[in-house]
Amino acid sequence: MPEITAALVKELRDKTDAGMMDCKKALTETGGDMNKAIEHLRKSGAAKAEKKSGRSVKEGLIAAHIDGATGVLAEVLCETDFVAKNEKFREFIRELAKSGASTAADGDISAELKAKGTEKLTQMIAVIGENMQIGRAIRWKSAAGVCAAYLHMGGKIAVMIDAEGAKDATALNDVCMHIAAFSPKYVGPEDVPADIIAKEKEIASSQLGNKPPQILGKILEGKINKWFSEVCLMRQPWIRDDKTSTEKANPGLKVRRFVRWQVGEAS
Asked: Looking at the domain that runs over 59-187+247-262, which CATH code has it been given?
């Protein structure tokens, strides 16, 4: 059996990112055969990942990849904020998001990215020692505009929009920041489902009591418009000037869709 030298251990570590002691053990158990040692570490990593798979993952990060009309968000979860700050963890998420741009789907691509990233993630679990999971992932291809994204707190909150008619990239970034800060549920009143509006009208009417019919309608209309200004992006007071709305501050802007994610909210 060849001598298990420090150079051989380092070579295996460089190829796998596994710990030095794990590399030495793998080489010892495989008689110094590099290929068998790599396979041994992969199997060992999978076993470790399986053992940790039941542990809670509430931390993590979201990464964005934007290429003109194509946008991707990808979320990877871990157990602690310490790991979320690890540069290898961050690099993995960035690469995962980038890989999502090449898929053909428009919408949920979490299954595709889990298939692409599981092997690498398993290796990271073996090295870092925490449970990690690939969470949500979406890919959008704008039909007539561009995609833009904004990451808040380093990726704890992420926003992506599909929009057209923005005057420049700064305006798109401001809209994304606004969504991150104010969490709208809909783009505009026309996007609110009829049953949701009906329910809000019912609630508002019950609060008004026995008002004369001739004024009830106007009061109710005012309440619903106020509610629109709370839940609809284009009606909300603008982040840069709360005396105007998002719509008035961004003439010509058409937001086709948006998404706002916060790490771990879906787990």
From this structure: 3.30.479.20
pLDDT band with cut points at 50, 70 and 90 for residue 206: confident
Region 143-151: mean pLDDT is 97
pLDDT of 61 above 50:
yes
Which is it for the CA torsion 25, 30, 32, 38, positive or negative?
A: negative
10-40 pLDDT, tens digit each: 887 777 766 777 777 877 887 888 887 777 7
Residues of the chain with CATH 1.10.8.10: 6-52
At residue 46, the pLDDT reads: 47
Alpha helices in the chain (DSSP H): 6-16, 20-29, 34-52, 81-84, 87-100, 110-128, 169-182, 194-208, 213-231, 246-249
Give me the pLDDT at residue 44, please. Answer: 67
> Was domain 6-52 assigned CATH 1.10.8.10?
yes
Residues 49 and 204: their CA atoms lie apart, in Å, by: 52
**Bridge partners, residue 162, by sequence:** 147, 257
Contact, 134 vs 114, CB < 8 A? Answer: yes
Task: Give yes or no for a contact between 12 and 27, defined as CB atoms under 8 angstroms apart.
Answer: yes
Distance, CA of 124 to CA of 12 (rounded, Å): 15
Q: Where in the chain is the domain with CATH 3.30.479.20?
A: 59-187+247-262
Output the CA–CA distances (angstroms, integers) from residue 225 to 84, 236, 253, 258, 264, in the order listed.
Answer: 41, 11, 21, 21, 33
Distance of CA 245 to the CA centre of its chain: 27
